[in-house]
Design a protein that fits this description.
Blueprint: H1 29-32, H2 36-40, H3 55-72, E1 73-79, E2 90-94, H4 101-109, E3 117-119, H5 128-134, E4 138-140, H6 143-147, H7 153-172, E5 176-179, H8 197-211, E6 218-226, E7 234-240, E8 244-245, H9 253-260, H10 269-286, H11 293-309, H12 317-333, H13 337-352, H14 374-386, H15 388-408, H16 410-413, H17 415-432, H18 434-448, H19 452-458, H20 464-506, H21 509-521
Parallel strand pairs: 1-7, 2-5, 2-6, 3-4
Antiparallel strand pairs: 6-7, 6-8
Length: 523
């Protein structure tokens, strides 16, 4: 929940506003480089099969995303999947604070294949563009690119019209889709102004489905909850909300007729705005919806103290979010300025010491380390050390590349770029570096090291090449185990660091102040 300040230029710092007078996000270097010719040649999705893009590459991407998410988060929970209707299409909408992590978690949690729309540079970047084109990502030009002169209004209208029509068609055929109505990733603790693009897309999909006699699709609001969004191995909860039914009966046949000829048609503005307002209400409930992050941290603290008082301390990250949400809803009906002010003060002290509400015990004091947790922590560290000789030559390079790229791009693209680059390095590195690295290691062991165990194991293979290949195949799952042991060792180190911070806080003046304020909050 702690938010570091981004080095990137903040919203509106250059003074450029959108048509509604709101500050526009400053473009990253990649977003400002529009390659119009390549965008116009972006592969189109198909809707006669089970996936809009290439079935083979879509399956590969899905496997890569799911595997990488397991490494990205320390705890990962998905709820509400039973609310997703599988007999009709759905447009998923959430707030957008975590770059590529946001769509990755939605796509891997949803039971349907997706027709995908995204920022224009997703399909033109050197590496990720290859994959985006294979799964038929449709480029979208945002108002930020248009106003800042990235392309002409005519080109933007052509690209966006084509992309929105393809997304609407895919949704009407029963596929999933995600769009972020804020239009940009951000650092705020609340929703930004919602754009109308997702609503227009969903209503057009409803018009197509109605005209073709298909099931009417829905909009699904989603809560994406990250403990600290820009941290690797943070906690995550993906919360699917109750679907929003689309008013297909209020859409005239003329919209369907125009869409069915391959031309984009705008739904009635009244319906678009009404749907946008309803989506905002739903999303506000599923997001922190706080004035700032300190206030949100204060709600978490109050939720923990109240839970401890009732003998029900929050255990999981989902429990913590729900407890904070209950505090928020209650304070909205009956403001308690004095309690909130004290809670904010405690939250600020905890944040300064790189801690959060979990540092507080049920009695309002600073939590002590559990001796019973020591054996498990030591075991994780020992196992990580044992596998370190294999982890360093196989996984350390991609981990280092992810960190360097993530830290480097914070200045241009914000904190959300940090996790995006780390995620990409982990995903592509695992699938494309491990096999050649396994071959290199196995070649070295077979050709230059006399290891009795290896000799007896591979003795039936007479060819050196076959021995190298066989050993490489054996090494790949061992590399995976080394990676798993490394991240669990990292988790153990983080636990020890937090325990040390609590000890230092407990013996300081700030610790005394925290204890005093928490005692007052418990009265």
């Amino acid at each position: 929940m702690v938010e570091e300040s981004s080095k990137r230029m903040s919203f509106g710092e250059d003074g450029i506003l959108d048509a509604h007078g709101n500050p526009l996000p400053v473009l990253s270097k990649s977003a400002s480089m529009m390659k119009i010719d390549r965008l116009m040649k972006t592969p189109l999705p198909t809707f006669h099969g089970n996936t809009p893009g290439s079935p083979f590459w879509t399956q590969i991407v899905s496997m890569m995303l799911k595997a990488t998410i397991g490494f990205q988060f320390r705890s990962y929970e998905v709820t509400g999947k039973d609310k997703i209707p599988t007999a009709r299409g759905s447009l998923c909408c959430s707030w957008h604070t975590n770059g590529l992590i946001d769509p990755a978690t939605i796509m891997t949690s949803h039971p349907k294949r997706f027709v995908v729309g995204g920022r224009h540079d997703l399909v033109t970047r050197p590496l990720i563009g290859f994959w985006a084109r294979r799964i038929a990502v449709q480029p979208v030009v945002r108002q930020a690119e248009l106003i800042r002169g990235g392309c002409s209004p005519e080109v933007a209208a052509t690209l966006n019209g084509r992309s929105l029509l393809n997304l609407s068609t895919g949704i009407s055929h029963g596929f999933g889709c995600f769009l972020f109505p804020e239009g940009t990733s951000h650092n705020e603790a609340h929703l930004l102004r919602l754009k109308t693009g997702p609503m227009r897309t969903a209503l057009s999909a409803a018009a197509l489905a109605k005209g073709q006699g298909r099931e009417i699709p829905v909009i699904i609001p989603i809560g994406l909850h990250w403990r600290i969004r820009h941290h690797w191995r943070t906690d995550a909860w993906v919360e699917f909300g109750q679907p929003i039914e689309l008013p297909a009966e209020e859409l005239g046949d003329e919209i369907f007729h125009q869409l069915s000829t391959g031309k984009w048609a705008e739904p009635p503005a009244e319906l678009v705005n009404r749907l946008r307002d309803e989506l905002r209400i739903r999303l506000e409930y599923l997001t922190p919806n706080a004035e700032d992050w300190t206030t949100y941290n204060a709600w978490h603290l109050l939720g923990r103290l109240e839970g401890g008082k009732e003998g029900k301390l929050p255990i999981t990250w989902r429990d913590e979010v729900r407890a904070a949400r209950n505090v928020r809803e209650r304070l909205a009906k009956k403001p308690e300025d004095e309690r909130l002010s004290k809670a904010r003060e405690v939250a600020t002290i905890l944040e300064k010491n790189h801690l959060d509400a979990r540092a507080i015990n049920a009695e309002g004091g600073i939590r002590k380390a559990k001796i019973s947790a020591a054996p498990a922590t030591i075991t994780r560290l020992v196992i990580a050390l044992l596998f370190l000789p294999l982890f360093i030559p196989s996984c350390f390079i991609q981990a280092l590349v992810g960190k360097i790229l993530g830290d480097k791009n914070i200045e241009n693209e914000g904190l959300d770029a940090r996790t995006s680059y780390q995620f990409l390095a982990s995903m592509f590195g695992s699938f494309f570096l491990w096999p050649p690295i396994a071959l290199i290691i196995s070649s070295f062991l077979i050709l230059y090291c006399e290891i009795t165990v290896l000799a007896s194991l591979l003795d039936p293979l007479t060819s050196q090449v076959l021995k190298i290949i066989a050993l490489a195949i054996i090494l790949i799952p061992l590399i995976l185990i080394s990676a798993i042991s490394a991240v669990r060792g990292w988790d153990a180190l983080e636990d020890l660091k937090r325990a040390r911070r609590r000890v230092r806080l407990r013996g300081s003046d700030d610790g005394d102040k925290v204890k005093k304020l928490c005692a007052e909050l418990l009265l």
